[in-house]
Amino acid sequence: MSHVLDDLVDLLSLESIEENLFRGRSQDLGFRQLYGGQVLGQSLSAASQTVEEARHVHSLHGYFLRPGDASMPVVYSVDRVRDGGSFSTRRVTAIQKGHAIFTCSASFQYDEGGFEHQVQMPDVVGPENLPTEVELASAMADRLPERIRDKVLCAKPIEIRPVTERDPFNPKAGEPIKYAWFRADGKLPDMPALHKYLLAYASDFGLLTTSLLPHGKSVWQKDMQIASLDHALWFHRDLRADDWLLYATDSPWAGNARGFNRGSIFNRAGQLVASSCQEGLIRHREDWA
Fold first, then answer.
1. Could you give the CA distance from residue 74 to residue 38 in angstroms, rounded to a whole number?
2. What percentage of the chain's residues is helix, strand, coil (to nearest 5)?
């Protein structure tokens, strides 16, 4: 693994400080607040560590309650809500400075047979010859805010290659649909739960901004206030986070300063491995321009 991926795996591993109580480091990615994917991945890690290994996570539903502080660790309190014959339910609260910043419920299930169907994977160009997000950002480095330039251009543990490219500093209105390939930048151990933590972490990248596409707006514009409000994930099968995954996102609705977004995540074989939904604040603030 690369050193940045090794650091991310450590970030998601958590420290057990008491029964049902865990602590995780934080990372500063240059956003105005703690990156939501961090608390998603760490919350799933905390919940998973209280469930028997044979039960695999199949869904996670969470709410972002307060902005997190990237300079402080996060404490995760796990409530063992129920262990039934087939399913286990856990409630996780992420805490900083004595207040909940995020809360979620996660459900786990034994593997079993049943009916199967899925939607078809979109027909898009493969990742091999596409530039990475870091390469695209490097080409416009002089336009990046100086305070976050180093964080945007540094090595990343998750390699993202957009299929749908747009100029974030001069966005044009278009369809609320986009595609991107992503994978962990290095070989990961054969631990199915770890690959799902990493997927949860990566699932927050770019999802909310899909709802900005029809309006010709971008997260990089100073007059936009953008924040995740909630996030849901469904895991449909085991996956490899260190092999290419296609993130197909769309936004069927926006209104009342909120944008609703959906995501489908496919592996290279065309199998749907996970689905996501997120609603977020997309407030236009002319007084910030």
1. 10
2. 20, 35, 40
- Give 100-132 pLDDT, tens digit per residue: 999 999 999 999 999 999 999 999 999 999 999
2 is catalytic: no
Which of 203, 211, 276, 278 is labelled catalytic? 278
Respond yes or no: is residue 278 known to be catalytic.
Answer: yes
Strand partners, 22: 16, 76
Question: What tokens does 30 get?
Answer: 């240059």
The reported pTM is 0.96
77, β-bridge pairs: 21, 93
Question: For tokens 């898009």, what's the residue?
Answer: 124
> What's the rounded Cα separation, in Å, for the pair 281 and 32?
14
Active site residue 243: no
Burial degree of 221 (CB within 10 A; 0-12, 13-18, 19+): middle
For residue 230, the cross-strand partners are: 63, 279
Find how far residue 247's CA is from the centre of its chain: 11
Contact 260, 204 (CB under 8 A): no
164 secondary structure, DSSP code = S
Which tokens sit at 118? Answer: 């899925």
Task: Give the active site residue among 42, 43, 88, 204.
Answer: 204
Amino acid at 132: T
